[in-house]
Amino acid sequence: MTTPRPFGLALCAMITPFTGAGELDLDGAGKLAAHLVAEGCDGLVLNGTTGESPTTTDAEKTALVRAVREAVGDGVRVVAGVGSASTRHTVELARSAESAGADGLLVVTPYYSRPPQAAVEAHFRRVADAAGIPLMLYDIPGRTGTRIEPETLLRLAGHPRIVAVKDCAYDLLGSTKVIARSSLAYYSGCEELNLPLYAVGGAGFVSTVANVTPRPLRAVLDAHDAGRTAQAATLNHLTLPLAELMMASGLPGTVTAKALLGTIGLPAGPVREPLQPADRATVDGLLAAYEEVIRAAH
Question: Where is this site: Part of a proton relay during catalysis (predicted)?
Answer without folding.
Answer: 49, 112
